[in-house]
L-serine ammonia-lyase (Capronia epimyces CBS 606.96), 360 residues
Amino acid sequence: MIERTPDDMSTTKQPWIETPLLESSVLSKLAGCRIFLKLENLQPSGSFKSRGIGNLVLKSIREQDPSDTRPLHFYSSSAGNAGLACVTAATRLGYRASVVVPTSTDEWTIQKLYAAGATEVIPHGDSWFFADQHLREAVIPGAERHGEKGIYIHPFDNPAIWEGAATMIDDIKAQMPDGERPDAVVCSVGGGGLFAGIMQGLDRVGWGDQVRVLPVETLGADSLAQSLQRDELVTLAGITSVATSLGAIRVAKHAFKEARRPTVTTVVVEDAEACSACWRFLDDERFLVEPACGASVALAYDGRLAHYLADLRPDSKVVIVVCGGSKISLDLLNKYRQTYQQRSAELASGYGGRVEGSSD
């Protein structure tokens, strides 16, 4: 691994890309409005996390004291997309990166982290909370005793992460046809880093009080919706949703604050809806995404958008953030289909039944 100093970073490219914004004729027909897909699944790590985590990694490198010659080593606590984004960003910039994951993490995910360039993947604890605690209290101090400079990368709760995610809105403003602005943006919510960044980006481009935002969670990972319902930050007892990438038992305080704006409407869907959207989206757009992303994509199907946006018109412009995700395979998607197909059909009927042209 190449060791680089902060002075080397002046010409370093950012560890994320400007992703396409595509208008989907298929989903527009199904949703009854103009649907634009922000394809964050095309980021280097396979998810939107490349923006926020990548920005935090880059910022951490640039803030290092040039007189400190210890080699940098980045550490994340995530068995999902945040860990993969940390490893991808750090290794692309020439640094080591390791990840502490819960002991329940499957071998397939661990091998993906190693394939992305992880120096070490350390299983510890039965949840992200304990993995993160072990990282901060044992792993990083241990690395520093051996002469490294350990840099802690939080999965979602850091202003640099929100700033990185906010660059998505800069993209969208430049990419919308004829200089138009969207009427609404739909995004998935776990810990709230993406959502907080979107709100920050909307403010920066002058759309903060003009664009509706629909943050979407799955039932069983709905810490934001429950917090708003109780008007206080809620810590879930555990995560029961299959969309484990949304599995933050407590949403970031800043995200909770942003969600109280009048332009924000929270949405909670069942696992069956999120998983159904995954296999339908694969049929309709040829992209394979995990249920955490399917939660947002689900709003394009079966009249859900019209249910949450009462003023939806055929010319309304809605951007759905296709956040991507690595925790999916064709075998797993087929298992979801066997498990949830009947329930997804039942739920679709609650929004007015099967929409003509639906692939489900």
